[in-house]
Structures are given as structure tokens and as C-alpha cells.
Write a structure and sequence with these properties.
transmembrane, transmembrane helix, globular, 0% strand, YitT family protein, YczE/YyaS-like, 220 residues, mainly alpha
Amino acid sequence: MTETVSFSIPSLIKRAVFLCLGLIIMAFGVAFSIKAALGTSPISSVPYVTGAISGLSVGTTTIIMNTLFVLIQILILRRQYQWVQLLQLPAAVLFGMAIDVAGWMIDGLTPTAYWQKWLVCLVGIFLVALGVSVEVTARLITTAGEGIVLAICQVAPVKFGNMKMTFDLTLVALSIILSFTFLGHLDGVREGTVAAAVLVGQLTKQLTKPMAAFEKTCLN
């Protein structure tokens, strides 16, 4: 699913720390997006809605969803599954716990005006993009959501970009269906969701070069 790369022990330790940092940054991005109340990013839309339905925290539902994603990867790839990707499970636990901690830390942030909500939303989008860039730069494991996309691409003749878009749209559609079915109204999917879908990828591309330079200088 991902390219196998050998690292020295010091480099591996630094990359593991960098991966954890990326997950924590992403978690703060999710927390800011939730606080903005303009809709979460596509990957967080299902945990947000299922959390609202069940009463569980978004962090808890994120852990559950990512665990299901890992199981789906195994079912898709079977013997081709790289068992090192089971490290996605502790990464998912860290990510979920960090979302709840981040939400607690910014609990006092209360944007009221529409422009204030957009400002908080954009901060969240930037943090998600930065966290993704940091996580990718670590080059250890993929996130569970990205792992599903890569697994499908490995067994089907479909491009990663097209599959990623389809996967994100599927999550958003599922969130909308769950929201109307169990809550009676639309929740967690708004204009901020569209902005995140468009901007996270673009910002991640812009961060590629500085992150590559950082990896060469500090992680190798």
C-alpha cells in the first residue's frame, strides 16, 4: 500500500515523533472546524454526525471509524495487506484522543459573527493541511482513511485522485443521510465542508517543498 523504506533507528524515532506531531496538528484542525460550526472536513463529517447521534465524543467516534477502515483494508487486500499498517490503529487512538483534548483546550473560543466563524474555519483548514503534510513527510504509515483509498487503487484500475474524491463524497453523502435520518436536520455538513474539500489539498501541495526540505535536513 505504501512504499517500503528503511530508516536508521535515530531517523525512525524522529519520524515517529513527527508522525505523532502531524496527527496532533490535524486533531486541532478538526477541533477548530467543529468550533466554527460551518461544517467539518469530509473525513470528519461521519464521526461528527455519529457523535451527535450517539452522544459519544467526536474523538471516540473517530477511533471507531478508523478501526473499521483498517478492517475494510484487510478485507480488500487480504494476502496483499502489509501488516505494518496495523500501526494505523494506535495512530487512530492518538488522533481521536487528541481531537477531544484539542476540543477541551479551545472550549472557550466562541465565534458568533459569521466572519468570525469563517476565520476559525480557515484556521482549522490550514491546521488539517499542515497536519497532513507533516504526517506524509514522516513516511511511516498512512492514515486509515487514506489507506482505504490506496487499497482500492491497488486492486482496481482507478487513479488515486479520482478515488479520493469519490471516497470523500461518499463520506459526505453518508453524513447527510445519517443526519437527516436520526437528527431530523442537516448537521456537520455546510459551506465549510466544501471549503475544506477544496482547500486542504491545495494547501498540502503548497507545503510539499518546504516539508521535503525539512525532511532532508532534519529527519534523515
